[in-house]
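Dear support,

Our group has been running a series of protein-ligand predictions, and this particular one with protoporphyrin IX containing FE is the one our PI (initials K.S.) wants archived with full inputs and outputs. We had some confusion internally about which version of the output was final, so please treat the block below as the authoritative record. The input we submitted was:
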Amino acid sequence: MTSVPIAARESYDPIARFLHWSMALLIVLAFLLGLTIDAFPSTWKRAAMESHKAIGILLIVLLVARCGWRLTHRPPEPEASSPLLAVAARLGHAGLYVLMLVVPVIGLVYAIKRGQGLDLGLFSIPPLAAPAPRAETRPIREWHEWASYTLIALAVLHAVAALWHHTVRRDDTLRRMLPLR
Ligand code: HEM
Ligand code: HEM
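Confirmed final output from the archive:
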């Protein structure tokens, strides 16, 4: 029988932890930028919008890497809890993965439909289509907005669950995902 190294079971590996925390940080940053775009002075608005879009594109790239890593590397066994909570955790993680893809992809579709290009710092991508009428793009913007609220709400619930494991159950669930350990 092949044996799995103990370390692989005890903790998320450094790449998984790096991807988890860098993406969590970038998601919060993209969300805050998206919400506050209109509050930026007009000279900063364009830079803020382009940063929002560039962070979102980076998140898609990181998500592809994360899915690749997740499918080829075994995560640690979940801490023993009731079967119902184990199912809830799995569903929550799956929901977070789906929303981490859906939110930026809808944003990208919206930007393309609005006739916007992308300024990715090192290079730019020109508009791929002429701007569609607002009436056609408004629902896409609303989907982008509401999907991002759902992502943040689920992430908050997920963080509360992690803190509950740490402070009430006093198990290793949070410790094994912490960046410096
Ligand atoms: C996880 C990544 C992302 C999050 C959490 C996010 C979140 C948000 C939020 C909260 C808004 C404000 C919604 C509103 O008030 O209408 C917004 C607006 C916007 N987002 Fe994103 N976004 C993400 C990725 C992207 C990507 C990848 C693109 C395009 C490449 C994009 C393009 C836009 C555009 C163009 C707007 C402005 C909508 C408008 O008011 O015209 N977003 N985003
Ligand atoms: C936008 C924010 C976040 C997202 C999208 C997110 C997403 C995820 C996902 C998809 C997983 C499943 C494991 C994987 O395959 O990577 C996970 C695991 C985990 N996350 Fe988060 N996370 C976020 C923020 C947080 C925060 C703020 C905390 C702590 C307060 C946290 C603590 C954990 C822990 C402890 C695990 C391991 C759970 C287990 O082993 O069962 N996450 N996260």
